[in-house]
Write a structure and sequence with these properties.
This protein is mainly beta. The protein is built from no helices and 11 strands.
């Protein structure tokens, strides 16, 4: 079955960086587009980033454009999200998403 395991979250200060990873299994990863989504406390799911199967046409929400970079390793069935210049409003649980399937998420907290 489809499995996605996110990791890499933590507590950081504004302006810091984090690198999230998502290890996947159970579907044809190299042919599959994936997304990163997040859920802030008390709010709904927010789309963050998309990556196509080749990794050459990533897309980003306006709120993270220029600060976040998505990438993938098709040999390792893994996607990553490099997050720079983090802001308090980036605080959320981050999930990788494949056709609405998600893992347990990883908590990112940005606070001084």
């Amino acid at each position: 079955q489809v499995q996605l395991v996110e990791s890499g979250g933590g507590l950081v200060q504004p302006g810091d960086s984090l690198r999230l990873s998502c290890v996947t299994s159970g579907f044809p990863f190299s042919m599959s587009p994936l997304n990163w989504v997040r859920q802030a406390p008390g709010k709904g799911l927010e789309w963050v980033s998309f990556i196509d199967p080749s990794g050459t046409m990533p897309k980003y929400a306006d709120s993270v454009k220029g600060r976040f970079t998505v990438s993938r390793n098709n040999a390792k069935n893994t996607i990553t999200l490099q997050m720079n210049s983090l802001k308090p409003e980036d605080t959320a649980v981050y999930y990788c998403d494949y056709e609405s399937a998600r893992g347990q998420g990883t908590q990112v907290t940005v606070s001084s």
